[in-house]
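In the previous lecture we treated proteins in isolation. Real proteins rarely work alone, and many bind small molecules. This record shows how such a complex is specified: first the sequence, then the SMILES for flavin mononucleotide.
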Amino acid sequence: MEKLIHNDVVDALLQRRSHRSYREEALSAEEINTIVQCALWAPSAINQQTTQIAVIDNKAWIEELAQDAGREGFHYGAPCFLLFYALKDNRWSAANAALATENATLAAHALGLGSVIIGCTADYLLSEEGAKKWQKRLGVSENYEFVLGLLVGHSVDAPQPKPRNQENIKWK
Ligand SMILES: Cc1cc2nc3c(=O)[nH]c(=O)nc-3n(C[C@H](O)[C@H](O)[C@H](O)COP(=O)(O)O)c2cc1C
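The predicted 3D structure, ligand included, written as tokens:
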């Protein structure tokens, strides 16, 4: 295989991991704002900007959501949960939301924080009951639907890299 070119961005892409253990310490407003601004600056199809991003930075609400979703412990103790919502009935909105989520993971990594993308709350947050309660509480528009979550915090684990399947690249 050819050697890789290394720089800060490439190394961040290669070194980000999903973290599953966090300290209680809250994030600063600056850290959260930096992460959500990076998410907002993700590309979107024909610049439709169809992603709404909700921020839960209090542990009580994260616990409440875990209980509601029947996913106790899904948060691994992280103090901040970002929720990415997509405009319903739009061809590209789920892709746009996923790109925003990935920007947020990389921004967190660049700030020295840990993160992990969360899909396991989706069944509940997409249910009639879950959507009604949490979108109202978080100020997310009714014509949007949950796509992905992102836990962010000061991680305390050291996850091993999970090797990628090189055969997924189809060289001609
Ligand atoms: C769409 C999606 C949903 C995910 N949902 C969860 C989840 O609910 N809980 C969890 O612990 N990790 C979740 N992950 C993290 C993956 O397990 C992780 O990215 C994968 O194991 C590769 O590890 P790495 O991110 O450290 O490279 C999710 C990742 C993606 C992309």
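Summary for your notes: Residues 17-18, 20, 116-120, 148, 159, 162 surround flavin mononucleotide (CB under 6 Å). The radius of gyration is 17 Å.
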